[in-house]
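User: Can you write out an input/output pair for a complex, sequences first and structure second?

Assistant: Here is one pair. Inputs:
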Amino acid sequence: MSHLVRTDTLGGALTIPRAVLATERSARAAWSALAEPEDPRVRDLIAEFGPIEGLLAGLSGRDSKHRIFIERAARTDLGEATAFAMRHGIHLLIPGDPEWPEGVDDLTVPPVCLWVKGDPDLSSLARRSVAIVGARMSTPYGNQVAASMAAGVVERGYAVVSGAAFGIDKSAHLGALSCGGRTVAVLAGGVDRAYPTAHAGLIAEIAETGSVMAECAPGWAPTRPRFLLRNRLIATMTAGTIVVEAGLRSGSLNTARSAARHCRPVGAVPGSVMSQVSAGCHGIVRDGLATLVCDAKDVLDLVGVMGVDAAPHQSDPVQPEDRLDPVDAIILAAVPRRGAASVDTVAFTAGQTVAEVMGALARLELGGFVSRHDGGWKRRRSSRREAPS
Amino acid sequence: MSHLVRTDTLGGALTIPRAVLATERSARAAWSALAEPEDPRVRDLIAEFGPIEGLLAGLSGRDSKHRIFIERAARTDLGEATAFAMRHGIHLLIPGDPEWPEGVDDLTVPPVCLWVKGDPDLSSLARRSVAIVGARMSTPYGNQVAASMAAGVVERGYAVVSGAAFGIDKSAHLGALSCGGRTVAVLAGGVDRAYPTAHAGLIAEIAETGSVMAECAPGWAPTRPRFLLRNRLIATMTAGTIVVEAGLRSGSLNTARSAARHCRPVGAVPGSVMSQVSAGCHGIVRDGLATLVCDAKDVLDLVGVMGVDAAPHQSDPVQPEDRLDPVDAIILAAVPRRGAASVDTVAFTAGQTVAEVMGALARLELGGFVSRHDGGWKRRRSSRREAPS
């Protein structure tokens, strides 16, 4: 049932489950559970020996620079990531899979595999997708721009990729969801580690209609370096990156630079010159790294396929939700499908004022989109697939 | 006391005061009272005959295309503009005067003269000056940015030139005045016609510490075409033009285009993507006409003299070119030593945006590296072997 590897450096031996060495897929899953993203030693071992023999070589102790893998393997059940994924309906993609998002192969050290909750077809999602990212400490202005830009992008048939963080990321995901659009959350830890935890519901909803993906194995914690490494996936899997708000030291500028380095167009949204979180956007425009974008049309002009995306994408028959006012649509997206949420909770989730939410909920109730439930509000199931009137 | 001119077209005769024909100055003043700004017929007559004989030729009726001058002369006291100016302490500048702002000579049809209230030395005012212009229907945000940008610009020893209009213009003048800085109001009508009348006090204050100037003769009303013609003076007499807020059809975009056409750097201030009066600013940045500027430092980086206004002066035994900003150095390398290249050609060769190239050429000209030649740019021979200071 298992495979014994002599490890000279530890003076002992490691036990590797035989299933791990059975296929390239299981070996890559083990690599993902063993090494940090973007480890060039992993890339080199796989390039020289292939994923399976590379694993044996890396754990043989023949080369002292691979010692970290042995130490980690000694504390890790290398078959557990795959087993956990199977138990929890998590998909595993490896390079060459038809669902693999080709863009990430442009990286100097591409991921060894990707873990996906929800729709596993990252290839078709990513082919027509835009990254919309920005500051966690965003302003109401930034949130509104991110949401309406995301809504406009998905209306034109593009998916919105972001990082599920507070602020701009959240607004981008919500804007996409509000129009029934597809959105992808790229997590810094494992796909089972919803982070921030306050966004567990949002991340679960994204997985229902789009995808939640990660390079790290299930169970891995989102650490600071992993956030930066995660950003390079967002930057390269998409057709372009838009920064809505960013301070001068924002991590989203790191995403933008990564996109530019890999020849993806970068857009930045202007804002007040007095806003700290627009300073980063203005800076990358001034430096020539980014193009100014003010709305979804500008975004598509920047990233779209000439002559295909220039004209608005038609998606008849339109859903009832498509006809909603953009802010109502954002508020609708913040109303849960299961259980019920108070007006305050909906307002917090949607990033809108309580007064706006109360007005919107009244309109949405009349439209048949939401109903009162247990003193709160819930989404009406039928509102999603209702035939156009 | 007077000079009789036969005018065949009117079948009669005009009386021209002899004083009008006494000097180039008085003849140019008469031209200013006779013809609209930017009349190419006036330019051609002066080029062919000089201002005095040109006046006689234009009023002779020999050429039917000059008939408008005869009709106007029949209703105008051609000596009155000069007499009025003398009575009211209005200065008259003509090309070649040491106080003449050289920049306007780059115009296809430069002014025949300029009327000035306040400090007549427009040359020294304009040499280090920035135009700060924008929407009349500005927002509090735009007003605040215009005022603080103007204040920052005058604190760095630059004058602020604007059009004394409501909104951004007024805020720019006030920002300059608030720091005891110098500011120039360029009026569309005569300098005695404070317009808008609500700004009579502001315009009087500008004349006390700076200058109020006009191309039209005293008494002339500010009409719509004269506003557009006035804008070309603002654009060319200054080292660069900054648009703070502008709708998509704003007259200040006309100023910006005029500045760009004459190779002056153009800056635009970003703002909310939801603001109508930031749409024009965002548009000219996206089109590559303008560079994003957020504060006075950005403005000086754009228009300032390299090594004087931007970076501290280095006295190492390096070549002057070695001290250039890397992008400026790339742009300098794209300017030919023989013949002249247009801004577009330089931009193409250097792989930079037109806006960047215009900013760089302005800096390089001030640094003595390039010069204007036949409507284009060429490298100055001396710039290569100049001894370091």
